Each structure stands twice: as C-alpha cells, then as structure tokens.
Amino acid sequence: MKVLLHVCCAPCSVMVVEALRQAGHEVTFFWYNPNIHPTTEYVSRRDQLRTYAKELGIDVIEVDHYGLSAFVSQAIQDLDNRCLQCYEDRLLRTALTAKANQFDCFQSTLFISPYQRHDDLKLIAEMVAEKVGIAFHYQDFRPLFREGQTRAREMAFYMQKYCGCIFSEAERYRKKWGNHQEKS
Q1: pLDDT confidence of residue 184
Q2: Mind giving me the DSSP string for 162-183?
Q3: Looking at the 3D structure of the chain, how many domains does it have?
Q4: What CATH number has the domain bearing residue 128?
C-alpha cells in the first residue's frame, strides 16, 4: 500500500516508518504542523525531518505553514479540547492530501506517542477517513516508542522537549518548576 504518513517530528517517525516498510508499505512523509511553536522549534523539527527523509530516500510532501495566529485563535476557544482540534486539523489535511495524490491510505506518527490521547486520536482519524473517503491504516505503534527515541538519540536527532504547541510547552515548564505559575 502507498501510505501518506503525517509526521510530527523525525524522532517519532523512526520506528513508524521502519514498521510500515517492514510490512511492505511504500511510505511518503507529510509535514503539516501549524501547532508547533515557537518558530525556532517549528524550523528545527521540519529541518530534521527533511534531513532524515533524504537519508532514507523518502519523499516529503510539505504544507510548510507556521500557523501561530490561526492555531492560538482556535485553541484558546476551548483549551481543554485543543488537542482534539489539533488532531482533527492535521489528520484532515493529511487525508485530503492522501486522496488528492492517490495514496491508498494515511497514518500519523502521533500513534507512537504514549503522551497523546490515543483513543481520541484513533476515533478522529476514523471519522476523517470516512468524511474524506480514504482509508486510515490503523496501527498502535506505542510499544515501539522507547526504542524509537533511543535510536533517534543515537542518530543525534534534534529531540524536542514537548508536544509542540505553546500550551504544551507551558505545561512542561509548569510541571518542572511547580504549579505556582498560571495555568494555561
């Protein structure tokens, strides 16, 4: 199968692309992450993915859009559910791109992270697949997460410290420094 793989970052892609390729799938990376902030974080993740894709000989389709204003405007309306909005935005764009470019299905590296809301993510991906009319190739990659992170470190990848959005960065530091700071 030809799989369009939404990639949030190169470290999360290591074991996902390996598993998909071992299963005989042809993988193309898809970069669309307007949630990642600040600009330096966005560029670091994007550039690491570009480098890794070249090393693997994998094509990358990019919607290279640093979307601070639009993302924050949407997220601030319902902070408790911002992840769900973000999942839907990125998966919908992935599915639409997969269909427009005649892929057999789509998938996301978000499914390797034990930090994501996995069941919600799966439900949204299935809903988007039905809406767009393209298959979603479900696979739970979470058992491969630690190995992927270890291998990414061994390859000297840029390793981010938070999910990507400005709110997740604030949560990271609030946990690190204690809860005396304003909650997001």
Answers
A1: 43
A2: S-SSHHHHHHHHHHHH-TTSPP
A3: 1
A4: 3.40.50.620
